[in-house]
Amino acid sequence: MHILEIIEKKKKGVELTPAEIGFVIEGYTKGRIPDYQISALLMAIYFKGMTPAETNALTMAMVESGDQIDLSSIEGIKVDKHSTGGVGDKVSLIVIPLVASLGVPVAKMSGRGLGHTGGTIDKLESIPGFNIELSMAQFMENVNRYKMAIVGQTGDLTPADKKLYALRDVTATVDSIPLIASSIMSKKIASGSDAIVLDVKVGNGAFMKTLEDARKLAKAMVAIGNGLGRKTVAVLTNMNEPLGHEVGNANEVREAIEALKGKGSKDLLQVAVSIAAQMAVLGEAFSTLEEAKEAIITKIADGTALETFVLLAKIQGGDPETIRHPERLPQAKRSIPVRATSFGYVHEIKAEEIGTAAMLLGAGRETKEDVIDYAAGISLEKKAGDPVKEGEVLCRLLTNRENYEEAYQKALEAYVISADVAKPIPFILDVIGE
C-alpha cells in the first residue's frame, strides 16, 4: 500500500477501502506521510467527494487515532448534544439541566469559543468557581449520581482530526461535506455517548449559509452516527440572527437562567425545548416528542429545571447562589446604546457581525491566547420583525474597554432595516432523523 496509489485512486473518483483510509490516517498522525501528500488527497476528496462507507471509515480512523472514552459504567442511555456553532448559542446551558431533570444522563464535552462564535465552557466559567477540568472518575460519578456533567475536551481525543483540520484550513478544503461531517462526528463518537442530537445552524452567522448545504451536512452526520451504532438526529435551526437577546458570556448565562424559568426569548426557548425533547426521546425517557415537550414544560414551570442548573453549578465547584441571584455574575462598567439611523422594520440581524462586534468588546478571542472578559457582550433590544423608530435603541454594547467605536459600527451595520413589514422567521427549519 502506498500513498501515491491512494491519491491516484481518489483523483479518479474510485472508492477507497477502509484499510487504505486507515493507512493514510495512521501514517499522517504518526508523521510518516508528509503534509504535501495529504494536501493532495484532501483536494481530491474536495472535488470527488466520499461515499457513505468512505466517510464512516474516515470517521472511525480518526476516532482510533487517539483516546476513546468508555462511558459503559454510567447507567442508562448517555445522550450528547453538539452545535455546529453560532452567535448567542447558549442552548447547552439550558438543555443539560433540562434533560438531566428528566432522568436522562448527559455526559457533555464542550469547547471554547474562537472568533465570532462563543464557547459553552467560557460561558460556564463566568460563574464564580465553576470547574470544567474534572477528573474522569469525578466526571463519571457526577453523571451516574446527578445525570449530568460537563468538561472541556481532552487533548488526547482524535489527534488525527486536529492535524487534518489545521491542514484543511490552509489548503481551502474546509468546506467539504464529508470532511466536515467526519471531523464533527469523530469527536462525538470518541466521547462515548450512545446517542447524539446535532444542532445544525443555518444562515449568515453559521458555517452552513444555505438550507440545502445544511441538509447535506446533517444527512451525512446522521448517516455516520447511525452507521456506527449511535442513534443520531439533526435539528436544523436558524442563525440568520443571533439566538436570543444576549451575546457574550455572563449575559448569556443570565439569559439561560431566565429561559429555565420559562421567561425570555421565544426563539431560544423553542430551540432549546425542541433539542431537549429529541435528547429525551433518544434517551428513551419518552416514546414521543409531544410527551417529552410536555414533561419539559412542566419541569420549567415547577422550578425543577432551574434547581437542576443550581445543582450543576454546585457539583462542579461553582457558586450555586449565583444561579439564584444572576446579578452576581460579572457586569460591564459601560453600556453603550446603538441607535437606529432610520425607521422601519428589522428584517435581519447579521449574526456574524454581531459576534465579531462582541469579540471586539472583549467577549471572544481572535487567537487562542486571548483572555476573555466575561462581562463583555451585546444585548439585543430589537429582533427580526420588530418595528423601529429613528433614534431608537437597537442593542447595547457591554464592555470594560474605552475603545468601542469599531464594535459600535459593526453592530449598527448588522441590523438590516427596511420600510416593508418583515415576515416572521422560523426558528426550527428541519429535522433529519434515521
Automatic annotation (TrEMBL):
Keywords: Glycosyltransferase, Transferase. Its EC number is 2.4.2.2. SMART domains: PYNP_C. PROSITE patterns: THYMID_PHOSPHORYLASE. It comes from the Bacteria. It catalyses: 2'-deoxyuridine + phosphate = 2-deoxy-alpha-D-ribose 1-phosphate + uracil; thymidine + phosphate = 2-deoxy-alpha-D-ribose 1-phosphate + thymine; uridine + phosphate = alpha-D-ribose 1-phosphate + uracil. GO terms for cellular component: cytosol. One of its GO terms (biological process) is pyrimidine nucleoside metabolic process. InterPro entries: Glycosyl_Trfase_fam3, Glycosyl_Trfase_fam3_N_dom, Glycosyl_Trfase_fam3_N_dom_sf, Nuc_phospho_transferase, PYNP-like_C_sf, PYNP_C, Pyrmidine_PPas_bac/euk, Pyrmidine_PPase_CS. Residues 345-418 form the Pyrimidine nucleoside phosphorylase C-terminal domain. One of its GO terms (molecular function) is 1,4-alpha-oligoglucan phosphorylase activity. Homodimer. NCBIfam families: PRK05820.1, PRK06078.1, Y_phosphoryl. Belongs to the thymidine/pyrimidine-nucleoside phosphorylase family. Catalyzes phosphorolysis of the pyrimidine nucleosides uridine, thymidine and 2'-deoxyuridine with the formation of the corresponding pyrimidine base and ribose-1-phosphate. This is Pyrimidine-nucleoside phosphorylase. It comes from Proteiniclasticum sediminis.
